[in-house]
Design brief:
Elements lengths: L2 E12 L2 E13 L4 E5 L6 H8 L7 E6 L2 E2 L5 H11 E5 L10 H11 L4 H14 L15 H13 L5 E5 L7 H18 L2 E5 L11 E6 L2 E5 L9
Parallel strand pairs: 3-8, 3-9, 6-7, 7-8
Antiparallel strand pairs: 1-2, 1-4, 4-5, 9-10
Length: about 230
């Protein structure tokens, strides 16, 4: 499912001023791409991802997944679209602390109305596939940071979304766990053909990217290689 972004703007009212967080972005994302977003904090990465994921609405411009326009959809259709087509991975995992790993991963399928037994079977299969078959019954507090992020990734992909959005997925992990998560994201992209958009300060992730987009002052500039990155 290609994504076409045209003349995208997002402004926020801050006191007597308007802050333009995203400025006139035009971009086409092909199905199955692995895209890395880099840039300084406050540069607009998270705002841009929130717009792409249908969490926030643009001030002007359009975001189209095939012929589905996010900016013109009502809340009911937008909620259904997010549930069925978008997977989210966050820096701090956002797992439900009262549910074990298996139950957390089952949630998207249960929200889609899938039979409990089928959802449980699929969740167990995907957790086993990513190396957590021995952690199914563990609560988040009983898992390491890297394990919690793997659970979050499994939850994001179990519904086979068209796009996975990951906002600083390694930002709360040590270097070893970060490398493992980077490799897992890349492997899932290649195996499942899901489009990934990953915002990160971890520049080693750029080595895996099909495209590198720098988001700075609300504007997006494409980098040709990771050697074209001018800052840390």
């Amino acid at each position: 499912m290609p994504i076409n972004i045209t003349n995208l703007h997002k402004k926020y009212n801050q006191g007597n001023e308007f802050i333009e967080a995203v400025k006139d972005v035009n971009l086409t994302i092909s199905h199955g791409e692995f895209i890395i977003l880099i840039g300084p904090s406050g540069g607009g990465k998270s705002t841009f991802l929130n717009l792409i994921g249908g969490i926030d609405r643009p001030t002007s411009g359009s975001i189209c997944f095939d012929d589905f326009s996010l900016e013109s959809a009502n809340e009911e259709r937008l909620t259904r679209f997010r549930r069925e087509k978008i997977g989210f991975v966050f820096q701090f995992y956002n797992l439900l602390t009262s549910l074990n790993a298996l139950e957390n991963v089952m949630l998207p399928l249960m929200a889609q109305g899938l039979d409990h037994g089928i959802a449980k079977k699929r969740a167990a299969e995907i957790l086993t596939e990513i190396g957590l078959g021995h952690r199914l019954k563990h609560l988040p507090a009983q898992l390491s940071g890297g394990e919690q992020q793997r659970v979050a990734i499994a939850r994001a992909i179990i519904g086979k979304p068209s796009l996975v959005i990951a906002d600083e997925p390694t930002g709360n992990l040590d270097s070893v766990a970060s490398d493992e998560i980077i490799q897992l994201l890349h492997d899932l992209n290649e195996k499942m053909g899901i489009t990934f958009m990953v915002a990160t300060h971890n520049l080693s992730l750029c080595e895996k990217a099909d495209r590198i987009l720098e988001v700075k002052d609300g504007m997006i500039h494409e980098k040709q290689t990771d050697r074209d990155i001018k800052y840390i």
